[in-house]
Amino acid sequence: MSSTFPALSANPAHTEPPARRASLRLSATLLLVGQLLYIGVTQLHAGGDANDHPAVFTEYAHSGIWTLVHLGQFVGMAVFLAGLIALFLALDVQAGTARWAGRFGAASAVATLALYGVLQAVDGVALKQAVNAWGSAPDNEKAARFATAEAIRWLEWGVRSYQNFALGLALLLFAVAVLRTAWIPRPIAHLMGFSGLACLVQGWVVGYEGFSGTETIAIVLAFVLDVAWMIWLVVVAWRMRDSQASSPRR
User: Fold this and answer.
1) What pTM did the predictor assign?
2) Least packed by Cβ within 10 Å: which of 9, 36, 51, 248?
3) DSSP structure class, residue 181
4) Which of 90, 72, 114 is nearest to 29 (CA)?
């Protein structure tokens, strides 16, 4: 009987680390691919001073790839958030603080995806139709059409603000979970946390003053931080040996 128990307990020790390593590789790959896809597609977005509504609405109305760009952004964000949820499964933390941080982080990631879907419905569909109607309206209707497009723009500000808050919270919570995971370098958690703070700043700025230069700085900072910690996580995941998938920090 005594020889049976070591045999049974040895099984998870040999099977769990490879599974965890595969989960971490999947998560890291999804995160980086999703973020790079999102950044790449965003470069195709119609440009201009986003707070100069008459000028930028004209650019939006003339954009022939508007729908494809916003669909691509949604796909990129969905892949990125799928990577975050996969990271929760890969960490498989059992310690109290890290476990709850991971759970709430995953819930916040799901909320972020839902809000981003609403955002793209408002921006990618409703705003485009509104600016098209404004651009083609007769002179006596332009003022009313412009007011409608501007109201949709302000709705976009609101949804974007709360989507950024949800994403920032998700990243901060995952940073806490990663910080307590022994086999992932602590600086990855620090970079993730700073990225979360940058997203919170974006949420506040958009809600207060719209798509301003300050928000652009916060976006670029978040992109740089995200790409840095994601590349690092990919390297860790693909170089990790079975023995490195150990228990979380106490």
Assistant:
1) 0.86
2) 9
3) B
4) 90
Closest to 31 in 3D by CA, of 107, 72, 82: 82
What is the tens place of the pLDDT at every residue in 54-78?
999 999 999 999 999 999 999 999 9
Instruction: Examine residue 12 and state whether it is found in any structural domain, yes or no.
Output: no
DSSP lists the bridge partners of residue 181 as 248
CA dist 89 and 108 (Å) reads 15
Contact 105, 90 (CB under 8 A): no
Residue 3 lies in a domain: no
Amino acid of residue 149: A
Angle separating helix axes 4-42 and 213-239, nearest 10 degrees: 150
CA atoms within 13 A on the CB side of 204: 10
- pLDDT tens-digit readout, 197-250: 999 999 999 999 999 999 999 999 999 999 999 999 999 988 876 545 544 454
Q: Measuring CA to CA, which residue among 70, 92, 79 is closest to residue 230?
A: 79
Confirm whether 56 is domain-assigned: yes
Q: How far apart are the first and last CA of the chain?
A: 33
Q: And the tokens for 232? A: 């690092």
Q: Report how far apart, in Å, the C-alpha atoms of 85 and of each of 58, 71, 92, 141, 237 are.
A: 39, 21, 11, 47, 16
Question: How many domains does the chain fold into?
Answer: 1
Percent composition of the chain: helix, strand, coil (DSSP 3-state, to 5): 85, 0, 15
CA dihedral 178, 181, 182, 184 (to 10 degrees): -40
* Domain membership of residue 42 as a residue range: 22-244
Per-residue model confidence as pLDDT tens digits over 131-177: 999 999 999 999 999 999 999 999 999 999 999 999 999 999 999 99
